[in-house]
Design goal:
By secondary structure, this protein is an all-beta fold. It contains no helices and 15 strands. The strands form four sheets. Strands 9, 10, 12, 13 and 14 form a five-stranded antiparallel beta sheet that branches. Strands 1-2-3-4 form a four-stranded antiparallel beta sheet, with no helix packed on it. The chain has a four-stranded antiparallel beta sheet with strand order 8-7-15-11, with no helix packed on it.
């Protein structure tokens, strides 16, 4: 996203450094675009504004199951027995179905995000994934997510999904799924 034009928005006095010799007023201007807020500031007596800085909020970021802040668009948090949707995902008619142990279906979404990250799985303190995840977009457009225990494959010398041992998503953890954004057209008659 591109920041707005310089000097456009709401002016906010930041501080006046009261009691400090030679103190000057600092002002900030805050403005917004569809999902983002931006600010820039300037000190009184100077003509130059700083560059625009993006403000990160719960509207444009999400905290994943590992505690990291990530860029957000529609986000589905997939738990073992339910899903949670952020504000943007609630604009879609998303439904959840658990088909069996470690077998989940997300229906009615716009599909995986086409840019940036689109799935994040929970990890332990050492960065190891807690379970193996296989995900796909079905012909219907629904998202299938299956979770399995992990095993070591000696032929390819790698950890792989143990397809004979499905496992549910760990309690109090979830899989983050970032969906493709949908354009929202405001109705001028509302």
């Amino acid at each position: 996203p591109t920041p707005p034009l310089s000097g456009v928005g709401y002016f906010i006095p930041v501080n006046d450094d009261a009691g400090v010799t030679g103190a000057r007023l600092r002002f900030a201007v805050v403005t917004g675009t569809t999902n983002n807020l931006w600010f820039q500031e300037r000190v009184s007596g100077t003509a130059a504004w700083t560059v625009w800085h993006k403000i990160y909020t719960t509207r444009n970021t999400s905290v994943d199951s590992n505690g990291f802040i990530k860029a957000a668009s529609p986000i589905v948090k997939l738990f073992s027995e339910k899903i949670e949707l952020n504000d943007e995902a609630q604009r879609q008619n998303i439904e959840f179905e658990k088909l069996g142990v470690g077998d989940y279906l997300i229906k009615g979404s716009s599909g995986f995000a086409q840019e940036g990250w689109y799935i994040e799985t929970p990890k332990d303190a050492n960065g190891n994934v807690l379970f193996s995840v296989i995900y796909t977009t079905l012909e219907s457009g629904d998202i299938s997510v299956k979770t399995y225990k992990k095993k070591f494959d000696f032929e390819i010398v790698s950890i792989v999904s143990d397809l004979d041992n499905p496992v549910d998503i760990t309690e109090n953890r979830w899989i983050d799924i970032r969906l493709q954004e949908i354009e929202v057209i405001d109705d001028p008659q509302q």
